[in-house]
Amino acid sequence: MLGVARMMQQPVQPAEATRSAVSVKNLDIRFGGKGAEFTALSDVSVEIPEGALVTMLGPSGCGKSTLLRAVADLVHVSDGSISVLGQPPKKAREGRDFAFVFQEATLLPWRSAIDNVGLPLEVGKHDSSLPTADPQEMLALVGLKGREKALPHELSGGMRQRVAIARALVTRPRILLMDEPFGALDEITRDKLNEELLRLWQETGTTILFVTHSIPEAVFLGEYVLMLESLPGRVKEFMKVDLPHPRKLAVRDTVEFIRITAKLRALLEEC
Amino acid sequence: MTDFTHGSKQGVAMPLEKRNGVAEAVMGFFASHYPAILAVTGCIALWQFVVWFFAVPTFMAPSPVEVFHAFGENGAILWANLLPTLLEAFLGFIFGNLIAILLAVWFVYSSTAEKAFYPIAVIVKSIPIIALAPILVLIFGNGIAPKIIIAGLICFFPTLVNMVQGLKAASPAMLDLMRVLSASNAEVFWKVRLPASLPFLFAALKIAATSSVMGAIVAEWIGSSYGLGALIIEATYNFRSPLLYATVVIAAGLAVALFFVVSFIESRVIRWKPDAQH
Ligand SMILES: Nc1ncnc2c1ncn2[C@@H]1O[C@H](COP(=O)(O)OP(=O)(O)OP(=O)(O)O)[C@@H](O)[C@H]1O
Ligand SMILES: [Mg+2]
């Protein structure tokens, strides 16, 4: 837990608590050339407060991944603007302000777990004055102490995803972008990682934007839920989840939790 | 071939007391490959029987025993002709594959280059090597150069095709990851594209290992006074069938040896499984 203690040193000032980590204004994203144009996102505006954990829900193909990838400077913005910690996404990317966790672990299969976690420290011309974490500590943080030398094919799916999370944390990003990171895992592993993610979030104060297909997961994790509707992708709802922190898995059996999931399910059906 | 690489792990139960290493290895090899060993022995025995039973004259087809004697009698000749062929095949293998790899890298980074030169590569590939050999001998003379070029040409195309495919094999997600990390093109190449291409490269190198020997021998047929290819021609015209067969066995042995060298290097280099994502 040494890593966590150091990560907590990030300044959390009251005045900054309401600042936006990610600010999206009138965003349009279109794919394909002239004529065969396809509008994936249309007039999306949303403010993600710094330090918040926002989960993103919506029907398949509504543009959740596209929005996340636009924030990460992985797709071209057609119209509107995105600002990440007050900068354009490209600057934020080069400044290592965010890390991305994909649905698949996306580990380099020829590298051991520890070398995969260390990859971000080896590549890119990043500012050496930026804080970084020790890959060893990050692996321990996600519960993989002792498996440093293992190659990805020697690890289970859940373990690989933990390595991917450790890799995302090694640059001490202020924002974590996660696209269905636990989508391919079984429910038990997923529950466990959900709890660990919540703990991590509370200990580090990192802003997290988390895409999921599961309404209970969105409610359990989310401080806010952002719902997109499809064709074209727009914001359907941005709501605060009124469940106290810290949350335990048992919160999912409370009346309040069920009320919120029912409400979201009804909203999702309208999309 | 998987039989050869994985078979030895299956080994049968050994007596508890420790044997010495070599004997154990030989026993282990026999234990795991006995079907192949029995089949080969059977074929040789059948060959011996047919030659004996039908009283086939030696110049037409020698018996295994005669071929075996040919090894002893012509040991020096075989050895002296093996070395040049090995050298040609080896140098052809190195140059052919090196050029193919460099060209593949160029193709992957420049689609114009790919569009311009890929068709030429296909055309060169579709000229039968046996037809190309005389042309090269006319241009480069009787020396070692045309042999290296032909051995190299025969390696070139499979490696080019596989390497282009391999360099494009890195998953889009891996490339996205490198982009999020603001990695430079060189970093993407060395840390992702090149390692991802290695399984494809080695698949081609294993083919090239055996075909480079074939290329060198074919080149030696056309114009040479040394090498296994020249020896094959000479033995044929002089009706020295046992020597001819012994040469063929040596040539095959050389190809198999090169194949195993490449396989061994592959097993050292590639310790991962390409599909680790699922
Ligand atoms: N590179 C691309 N080129 C063309 N169209 C694309 C591209 N990427 C996404 N799209 C389209 O944009 C739309 C939104 O895709 P996106 O992947 O963002 O959906 P999603 O909400 O993440 O879906 P899912 O929940 O199934 O992951 C889809 O209709 C998809 O076909
Ligand atoms: Mg998606």
UniProtKB/TrEMBL annotation, chain A:
PROSITE patterns: ABC_TRANSPORTER_1, ABC_TRANSPORTER_2. The keyword Nucleus does not apply. GO terms for molecular function: ATP binding; ATP hydrolysis activity. Keywords: ATP-binding, Nucleotide-binding, Transport. Residues 24-255 form the ABC transporter domain. It comes from the Bacteria. SUPFAM superfamilies: P-loop containing nucleoside triphosphate hydrolases (SSF52540). Belongs to the ABC transporter superfamily. This is ABC transporter ATP-binding protein.
TrEMBL record, chain B:
The chain crosses the membrane at residues 36-55, 89-109, 116-138, 144-164, 200-223, 243-265. It is found in: Cell membrane. Signal peptide: none annotated. PROSITE patterns: ABC_TM1 (PS50928). Residues 78-266 form the ABC transmembrane type-1 domain. Keywords: Cell membrane, Membrane, Transmembrane, Transmembrane helix, Transport. One of its GO terms (biological process) is transmembrane transport. InterPro entries: MetI-like, MetI-like_sf. SUPFAM superfamilies: MetI-like. It is a multi-pass membrane protein. Belongs to the binding-protein-dependent transport system permease family. This is ABC transporter permease. It comes from Mesorhizobium zhangyense.
